[in-house]
């Protein structure tokens, strides 16, 4: 029976890479029906609402969505639609696998999965200005909320992921030396959960600043990384840079009743509309979606074809050093399928 999936093409390069991804999914014979919806700047322009009710209803009904990048105005305007979607659907774990696909770079053996707590920390959204005298913006304050409940389910997800995927080690990344309460609580919860997995999954913890250096020097030392929201956001871009850039970095947002699959990258305004964006990250996100839907065979067929196209090096997009367009790259994958 076919599965209906909410499809949000998104802003900037979103529509281009989404079309390329759909063509690849069609070519592999994935049994999917698309329920097309809008969000982000395109929805704000059309409906005066960056997250229309119809989009939320569609995700609620289908429980699975494939989403292109959404524009978020910096410093002003509407709040991040991505953050709002994560909150609305309780998408507590953000899963971002990164391994070397384009060989011949600085590293050969990187194979890291970052599990980021997706709802709390500094992205919780409790921010305000403080007026002092005549200056309404004399200061600004953000609350970093960490709960035992939220930490527990994100960290547990990381350990369960490690067990399910045969991975050996979980590294919890924190800043508990300075932020003793919030980051300290996250670390305490991690240490408790680690005891339950002793003998099955190794556990270690690292302070974020040292971790940033170690990831750049010796990324092959890491396996599954679990961390709080802001650190996870930053480290996942860092790790994608270790394996060839944002163009090949997929992500999954997982919750108890819905899951949203997307690329790690944004709308790439500098190349939007030029037809040169790499659709690889969204195609790989679609593979994570197929895995989630139980169609691991087709997911693996697409991944194998994509890896082969990249190994050949004749049809690479500009971010990978080639000259191929978005659709030529997708055509090459389809030909391989
Ligand atoms: P970005 O990820 O859009 O771009 C960073 C750099 O990577 C740019 O040079 C861009 O050309 C390049 N790049 C990104 N994806 C690429 C691809 N598929 N192929 C080739 N090159 C690619 O980050 P930026 O510029 O900081 O953000 C732009 C907008 O995207 C902002 O409005 C931001 O809020 C939004 N954004 C949305 C995300 C989402 O919806 N999940 C995630 C990150 C940013």
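Sequence proposed for the structure above (337 residues):
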């Amino acid at each position: 029976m076919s599965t209906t999936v909410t499809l949000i093409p998104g802003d900037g390069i979103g529509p281009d890479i989404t079309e390329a991804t759909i063509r690849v999914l069609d070519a592999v014979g994935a049994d999917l029906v698309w329920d097309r919806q809008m969000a982000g700047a395109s929805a704000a322009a059309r409906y005066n609402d960056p997250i229309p009710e119809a989009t939320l209803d569609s995700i609620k009904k289908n429980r699975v969505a494939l989403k292109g990048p959404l524009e978020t105005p910096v410093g002003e305007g509407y709040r991040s639609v991505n953050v709002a979607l994560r909150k609305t659907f309780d998408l507590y774990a953000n899963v971002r696998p990164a391994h070397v696909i384009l060989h011949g770079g600085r590293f050969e053996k990187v194979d890291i999965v970052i599990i980021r707590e997706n709802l709390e920390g500094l992205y919780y959204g409790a921010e305000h200005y403080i007026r002092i005298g005549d200056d309404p913006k004399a200061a600004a304050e953000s609350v970093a909320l960490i709960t035992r409940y939220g930490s527990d389910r994100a960290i547990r997800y990381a350990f369960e992921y490690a067990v399910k995927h045969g991975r050996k080690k979980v590294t919890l990344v924190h800043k508990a030396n300075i932020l003793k309460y919030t980051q300290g609580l996250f670390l305490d919860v991690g240490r408790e959960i680690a005891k339950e997995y002793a003998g099955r999954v190794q556990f270690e913890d690292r302070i974020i600043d040292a971790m940033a250096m170690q990831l750049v020097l010796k990324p092959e030392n890491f396996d599954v990384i679990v961390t709080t929201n802001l650190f996870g956001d930053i480290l996942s871009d860092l790790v994608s840079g270790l394996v060839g850039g944002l163009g090949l970095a997929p992500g999954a947002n997982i919750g108890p009743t819905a899951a949203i699959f997307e690329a790690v990258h944004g709308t790439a305004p500098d190349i939007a509309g030029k037809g040169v964006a790499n659709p690889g990250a969204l195609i790989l996100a679609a593979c994570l979606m197929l895995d989630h839907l139980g169609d691991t065979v087709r997911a693996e067929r697409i991944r194998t074809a994509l890896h082969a196209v990249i190994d050949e090096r004749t049809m690479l997009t500009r971010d990978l050093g080639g000259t191929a367009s978005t659709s030529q790259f997708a055509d090459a994958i389809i030909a391989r399928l």
